[in-house]
Amino acid sequence: MLPLADLRLKASLFSAACLTMFVCLASSPAQSISFREQIAPILVQRCLACHGELKFQGEYQLHNFEAMLKAGESGEAAVTPGKPEESYLLQLISASDAGERMPKDVAPLSTAEIAAIRQWIAAGAVFDGDDPQAELVSSVVWKHPEPPAAYPRPLPITALAFRPDGQELAVSGLHEITIWNTADGVLARRIANAAERTYSLAYSADGKLLAAAGGTPGRLGEIKVFDPVEGKLLRHFGSMTDCAFDVAFSPDGAKLAGCGADHAVRIWDASTGKSELVLKDHSDWVMAVAWSPDGVRLATASRDRTCKVFDALSGQLLLTYSDHGQTVHDVAFSSDGARVVSAGADQRIRVWHANDQGYEDKEMKKKKREHIHEISGFGGEIFCLRMDQQRVFAGSADASVRQYDADKRNQLQLYAGHQEWVYALDYCPSARLLATGSLDGQIRIWNTAEVDENKRNIATFFAAPGYPSPAQNAPAGTEVKP
């Protein structure tokens, strides 16, 4: 069985075959040069790996704009505003000797890229970002290619989300988000300018905003908020050096939380985009975030085999749950906020106290008893969870979707029909609809209130615009393949 890291790589390679990488720079003296749009993308992709905040050579750091202007161990500044020929950065990237030229041991920058940097320095090396001390990658405005007009094959479904009224479903695509009618599985519209792959989607409670987290493995992660009707990009919440895996609005819609492969959890003001907290308590990828119902706490799941609960206002770590022992893929609060459910590579759903239930034994040693119980019965890793009241919905690598009573631990329903890993799901309480998406690109929508199992699956389709899907409106129980 492939680990989640391989799944993400598999999904990325699937999509990479369909596109050409982004950011083409062709500047002329008549054009103004934007640091955010034209210079920062070059530095992030070609220079940051060897000149970051923690790993850097020659004492040169480019992790933020302020660091770029400081001298390295040679005593020369990387950039001298207004004087390109005196700027050490330009000398290094344009050197004719391959042994001296930067970046080392890889293809040199293109003529157009070097010309753009030269022109930007000559114009005064102007910074047009918000904060010169912010991470360089967070200042970048990436230009993504257009999505394909028609998909030759479906892509793995890595994210989906119901609009709060349940009438539409947002689904991950290739450099886009697709919106589908839930009643019949018909494509409603397409939203472009998204990351290569989208790993999480979340609507605001009023349905007026759609947040997306995604990126390109090892290169870029970003979180954006769109108008889901017009498709307009409303706010870019900054980029990161690797994929963003999850995003979630606080219950009141005032804050946005995100996490990713850079080990960090971030909280922003949803209306202004201002960064409020950056939490770096995990030691590996942070796979998922979940708000408590009152918006006061934030639960996380990580590849470091732990879950954590933080105070969402102060950032204080409240507790660490470490009973899984393997990668934890998803996490969710109970409706009363008293419990947390989490699941992952150990093929179990674990239910635990959301507050530190610590006590001291006779020797006055601190003990913990967060664990309540676990739910087993899966034949593969559990990738996704949703919780409503005491009901837990879970999707697994065994191609199943199961519904359990979190208190009694008994299985209430089995939603069968997928032929591949079920990697994404969402539940809409108001409409009592469940949407599930699998590695082969198939979407199934279920009416959980339907008593007759043969009528429960109300729509099945492949979320690939232009692909002649044999699954469109397939009868319940029909096996369909791409």
UniProtKB/TrEMBL annotation:
WD repeats lie at residues 237-278, 279-320, 321-352, 415-447. It holds the Pfam family PSCyt1. CDD domains: WD40. Keywords: Repeat, Signal, WD repeat. One of its GO terms (molecular function) is heme binding. InterPro entries: Cyt_c-like_dom_sf, Cyt_c_Planctomycete-type, WD40/YVTN_repeat-like_dom_sf, WD40_PAC1, WD40_repeat_CS, WD40_repeat_dom_sf, WD40_rpt. It comes from the Bacteria. The keyword Signal applies. This is WD domain, G-beta repeat. It comes from Lignipirellula cremea.
